Amino acid sequence: MLSVVLQEGVCVCVVTAAATSSLAASCCFILQRLISSSSPLPSLCSEIRLMEIMEGLCDSSSFECNRMLEEHEEHFETWWFKRKTKHPDLHKWFCIDTIKVCCPKGTFGPDCNACVGGSERPCHGNGLCDGDGTRGGNGQCSCNHGYKGEFCLDCIDGHFSEVRNDTFSLCTECHSSCKTCTGATNQDCDECKEGWEEDDQETCVDVNECSKDTSPCKEDQYCLNTEGSYSCKACDRVCSGCTGAGPDKCQACASGYQDTEGTCTDVDECSQSEPVCTKEHQECVNTTGSYVCICSSGFEEKDGECIQTQQPEKEEGSEESETTTSPHGEL
Question: EGF-like domain: from which residue to which, for each copy (predicted)?
Answer without folding.
Answer: 111-153, 266-305
